[in-house]
Amino acid sequence: MTVSPGHVLVVDDDDSIREVSTLALQLVGGWQVTTASDGLSALALAAENQPDVILLDVMMPGIDGLETLARLRSEPTTSGIPVVLMTAKASTGDEAEWRGLGVLGVIAKPFDPMTLGARLRDALEKPSSLG
């Protein structure tokens, strides 16, 4: 199955990461992008916009990415939205635990902006392909 670029919600507290992700996903990947700077905004935007996938930073102030993920999964309107985590601090053990939470994959920071859209598409096509 080939997944066409769709709508992605990028959630990261770092302005520069959101900006680079948006440019990379729109210009290189052909995705429609909505951004959120924190978990609470992400929850509202996910429910309102129903993105095809959420690219979610793990470490954020307030409610972190894992708490945001738990809240997304607990709401009927957002429970089925695929999630890919982004993090600068991932170990093999963390990734195994996160996959147990139902994420499609993990993208390590820093990431290559030129391949971000393709990696996201690959995660939707083959959930075990990211690392």
Keywords:
globular, DNA-binding, transcription, alpha/beta, 131 residues, single chain, 5-stranded parallel β-sheet, Rossmann fold
Overall description:
One of its GO terms (biological process) is phosphorelay signal transduction system. The modification 4-aspartylphosphate is found at residue 57. It is built from five helices and five strands; from the N terminus they run E-H-E-H-E-H-E-H-E-H. It has helices spanning 15-28, 39-49, 65-74, 92-100, 116-125; strands spanning 7-11, 32-36, 53-57, 83-87, 105-108. Strands 2-1-3-4-5 form a five-stranded parallel beta sheet, sandwiched between helices. Helix 1 links the parallel strand 1 (7-11) and strand 2. The two termini are 20 Å apart. The model has no long low-confidence stretch (mean pLDDT 88).
Brief overview, please?
With 131 residues, the chain is α/β, with parallel strands linked by helices. It has helices at residues 15-28, 39-49, 65-74, 92-100, 116-125; strands at residues 7-11, 32-36, 53-57, 83-87, 105-108. It has one domain (7-124): Response regulator (Rossmann fold, 3-Layer(aba) Sandwich).
- What would the average pLDDT be, to the nearest integer? 88
Percentage of β-strand residues: 15-25%
Helix content: 40-55%
Radius of gyration over all CA atoms, rounded = 13 Å
Q: What general outline do the C-alpha atoms trace?
A: globular
- Parts with pLDDT < 50 across at least 5 consecutive residues: none
State the end-to-end CA separation. Answer: 20 Å
Number of helices: 5
Output the helix-strand order: EHEHEHEHEH
Give the total of beta strands: 5
The CATH topology comes to Rossmann fold
